[in-house]
Structures are given as structure tokens and as C-alpha cells.
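Annex B.
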Amino acid sequence: MGEEWWSRSCKVNSSNTCREGPTAITFHKCNNLNLRNLVMLDSQQMHIAFTNCEEVRASNLKVNAPASSPNTDAIHISSSTEVTVINSMISTGDDCISIVGNSSNIEVRNVSCIAGHGISIGSLGRAHALSKVEHVLIQNVSLSHTKNGLRVKTWQGGSGYVQHIKFQFAQMENVSRPIIIDQYYCDSSHSCANQTSAVRVKNISFTHIKGSSATEEAIRFACSESFPCKEIELEDVQLSSSSGGITTMFCWNARGSTEGRVYPLPCPSFDDSVIEQKSIPGVISYSKSS
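Polygalacturonase: predicted C-alpha cells.
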């Protein structure tokens, strides 16, 4: 019966007071948990959350809510380790799967995401928080008509790291912004202040990522000036335009390597040890609602 809650959301009506809604099901401090064959419909906000859990296996799940429903993350993983999510179909109005600090050894396989905001690591580091996410494998996933594809998002001012992340064998269909690393994430109605500290991002690989982008900018790496993204790997990435035009890649303080065919063409600065760009108009203090 989530619709009653969605209509009161500040993301639906800016005159409403922003407040948290309930998560439909939360598993807290569970060990050796096996969750399977569950259907979830129209949660008030997040559908399923695993918090402070260890050794979780979630399989054959179906999660469904309208694309317009706010904050209805399907599966949210927080401060947990050894979590596996497999063989599931998800269609919601927010993140298909979200992984936040402090989580490690997470595996997502054979998951289909329709509409919503894609698969996200983050957001991390809000309100100067310390966040650590590492050893994550996202493999054999499909994303269709989502607002984002495979994303890492961190707030300015945080600390900690995101590292050893592998996105492999993903199929995109008409996805806006299929690949994103965003260290300037700002989910606020106001611009976020510039800050020098950041959650560090390194050793992130995108391998065998193919399909179509709904936007010209198919790959976006917007990284911190103080702590640039390092060891970003692109291998066999083919992202064409849904409309038949070109696709592009944007880089700001991102350093990495490419292997095999990569399209859109990498930024000239991507493989350089020194970033030559001097300014990034309209990025440092922008705000977003996705």
C-alpha cells in the first residue's frame, strides 16, 4: 500500500516535508540467512534491506513498484558482508540494488532491472561519514530503460574508500548514463558546498558492457580534485546511441586504462598521469534528484 506514502513524498511534491518512510522488510544482524521465492509489491519506501548481516543468499526474488514511485529501492545492502543476490527480476522507482558502507564481499548475478535508477554503490560519505565498500562483483545483469546503469556515487566531504569493484557482462537497453562514477553526488534541492575531502575511488573495472544509451554521454567519470579516481579499467565496452547518434565519454580527474574495443572513445586525458583540465563549469556545485 505504498501509494499512500508516495503521494506525501517531498520528491513528488516539494511543498511536503521530507521524511523517511518505512522499509517493508529489514533483516538486521542476521547470519546464514537464506531468502528465496519472495514477491514484493509497492513498498512504502525501500522493499528489502540487509543491515549488519553476514552470509546472506537471496534468490528468485521479484520486486515491483511503479517507475514514478520515490525512494523505492528494491534491495538495499548496508554494513553487511558475504551477501549474494541472484536470479531476480526488479522494476521499481529507485535503485534496483544499492550497496552502501560498510559492506564487503558482495555478489550480484543474473539480475534484471527495468526502469528505476539502476545498480548503485552508494551514496556514500554524506554528512562527513566514513564509508568503506570493497570486493563487489556485479555480473550477468541486464538493465532496461533505467535512469542510470552501473553507478558509484559519493558525497563531497566524506572519507573512506570504494575499491576492488567489478562490473562484468552487463546488457543495456535505452539506459540513460549507462556507466557513472560521481564523486559530486548531491541529492538536495540546494547546491552542495565544495569540499576537499572525499571517499576515495580506485580499482573499478567495467568489462563486457554492451547495449544502448538513451543519452549522448554514455560514460561519466566526475572525480574529486583532491582524490582523483585511480585504476579505472574499461574493457570491451560498446555503448551505442538509442537514437542513432553518437555517444561520448566525460572525464574529470579520472585515471585508468582501456583494453579491447571501447566505445564511446575514451577521453584523451583518461590514460594520462597528469590531468590537464583546469575548470569544470556547472559540475562542482550542481544538485540532482536522482
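The CA atoms of residues 142 and 215 lie 18 Å apart. The chain has one domain: 3-263. Further annotation is deferred to the next reporting cycle.
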